[in-house]
Design goal:
This protein has 275 residues and is an all-alpha fold. It has helices at 3-17, 23-34, 40-58, 60-72, 83-93, 96-104, 106-110, 116-136, 148-159, 168-178, 183-208, 210-216, 218-242, 249-267. The protein has one domain (3-267).
């Protein structure tokens, strides 16, 4: 991987990590189209640490308030029932499904699940599920109504993002919408729940796949992570503002078009689904 490729992939990671269109799908499709090598799941997980930093900075007030409330909650009583404390527990509990399943199916995630056939199917299927959430959800709940059980349910949806093409933000926003949250609240909950999972995945891959990452070069990996941070911050800001006045319809349409186009490219022999 050269520096140019690393920066392109970093920007792509940041832009697509927080939009419900799957960063993993784009990090597989773009290299395949240009004839680059698949950067691999380890590279993707590590440069996600750049997007994690973007979330930490953008939501530092939410994060600080939830952390402080979580510690105060150990005193019991009203302190344990504040919205901030419940949000902290939701984020913690919501991390367990993806952490456990990620460890159990790590080899499959790095291997056959990165097939472009899997990605194309996941792009279209999640789009249809998100469409159902938009159609049937009540869109009434705000962040003050978050409960620990919401974290578990959205966390189970987040675990679906282990399948390349599903999208972490896409699956969690879908799950939150089905629970009745407004679109901005669903996106905020999605981002806050993503932080522990992104951190754990990045650190695990950094340690477990250190030899592979070193072979890719520290400079390209570092530049990709920096690019992911900058573009990730811009992506978060865009989506939070966009969902105040718009539905997720444009992302649903994009996923369907991309998924069908990908199927066409595979059937036409333009792309090798396993390369």
């Amino acid at each position: 991987m050269n520096v140019f490729q690393a920066i392109v992939l970093g920007v792509l990671q940041g832009l697509t990590e927080f939009l419900p269109i799957s960063s993993t799908a784009h990090l597989r499709i773009v290299p395949a189209l240009f004839g680059w090598d698949d950067p691999g799941a380890a590279f993707t997980a590590v440069i996600q640490l750049g997007t994690l930093l973007a979330v930490l900075i953008y939501f530092w007030r939410d994060l600080g308030g939830a952390t402080a409330a979580w510690f105060r909650g150990f005193r019991g009583g009203p302190a344990s029932q504040t919205p901030e404390c419940r949000l902290a527990w939701a984020a913690i509990i919501g991390t367990f499904p993806i952490a456990i399943l990620g460890l159990l199916f790590a080899e499959h995630i790095r291997g056959e699940l990165r097939s472009l056939w899997v990605i194309s199917g996941a792009l279209v299927l999640l789009a249809l599920v998100l469409l159902a959430a938009e159609r049937f959800a009540s869109h009434r709940r705000d962040m003050s109504s978050v409960r620990a059980v919401d974290g578990l349910i959205v966390g189970l949806w987040q675990a679906l993002a282990l399948i390349p093409g599903v999208s972490r933000s896409g699956s969690t926003i879908t799950g939150a919408l089905f629970l009745g949250f407004t679109r901005p609240a669903a996106a905020r909950l999605s981002f806050l729940l993503s932080m522990p999972a992104i951190f754990l995945a990045g650190v695990h891959e950094l340690i477990d796949q250190r030899a592979e990452l070193l072979s890719a070069g520290l400079v390209p990996v570092g530049l990709a992570t920096l690019a992911a941070f900058v573009s990730g911050y811009a992506s978060i800001d865009f989506l939070m503002k966009f969902l105040r006045t718009h539905t997720t319809g444009v992302f649903i349409a994009y996923r369907v078009v991309l998924g069908l186009a990908l199927i066409g490219l595979i059937l036409g022999g333009v792309l090798d689904p396993l390369r």
